[in-house]
Amino acid sequence: MSGWEFGFLVLAGIGAGLTGSIAGLASLMSYPALLAIGLPPVTANITNTVALVLTSVGSVSASRPELKGQGRRLLPLAVSAVLGGAAGAVLLLLTPSEAFERIVPFLIAGASAAILIQRPPRDLAIQGARHHAGAHDSWWLPLGTFAVGIYGGYFGAAAGVLLLAMFLLGTGENLPRGNAIKNVILGVANAVAAVGYVLFASVAWSAALPLAIGCLVGGRLGPRVVRRAPQGALRRVIAIAGLALAVHLAIQAFS
């Protein structure tokens, strides 16, 4: 790998880590970058999943204030993510990823719309106390997390958007706390899938290393942006980016 390709992937990783930890759209930047340096699509998808684990490491380590008091909530969701991520990785190794291509745009569009229309809590202090232990979360959250975990391990495009929309709707939390949950659970699902790829598939390590370095840096920056940015404006940015990706993928799938 040349020096410019190494630097290009580090920069792409920073962008992916930043967008992934904020909006769950890391692959929008990292996957095309891997294709641009000449990796075939399947190898790029596998390498991308492995590198993106560092996004979660960075974002979770920077989200400790938002994760405070959420341990009881995270445990069943993490178990669901482990099972779903493992199942998705097995599916990817056994079946072609084209099976999801025509349904993915609708999933992403629906999740983006949900983020856009979901009303933020009016009183964050009350919400924080109410949902301290996850006692009032929707019953379907573990099942939904399992389903998105399968999708994330198998195809992965904008899985973070799906999780973010689900956690905002199912917990009633504000955007920073919901985003922190998303970063943990998405990281668990990605890590499980990545272990499977490392053991049973071919990872382009020369590309994964610089991309992962950038993802770690970008992932650390993301929660700080979410913490300080106006929630309403950030929701609109995330939703519009997700809708744009849905349109792009729909054109690819149906053209």
What does this structure look like?
This protein is mostly helical and 255 residues long. 79% of the residues lie in helices and 0% in strands. It contains twelve helices and no strands. Helix 1 packs parallel to helix 11 (205-228), helix 3 (41-61) crosses helix 11 and helix 9 (159-171) crosses helix 10 (175-200).
What structural keywords apply?
globular, mainly alpha, about 260 residues, about 0% strand
What does this entry show, briefly?
The chain is mainly alpha-helical and 255 residues long.
> What gap, in angstroms, lies between the N and C termini?
34 Å
How many strands in all? 0
Radius of gyration: 17 Å
Uncertain segments: 122-131
* Main beta sheet: none
Helix content bin: over 70%
User: What is the H/E string?
Assistant: HHHHHHHHHHHH
* Rough outline: globular
Structural class: mainly alpha
| Assembly state | single chain
Percent of sequence in beta strands: under 5%
Enumerate how many helices there are, as a single number: 12
Global mean pLDDT: 83
List the helices and strands and how they pair.
Elements: H1 3-23, H2 27-36, H3 41-61, H4 64-67, H5 71-94, H6 104-117, H7 124-130, H8 141-154, H9 159-171, H10 175-200, H11 205-228, H12 231-254
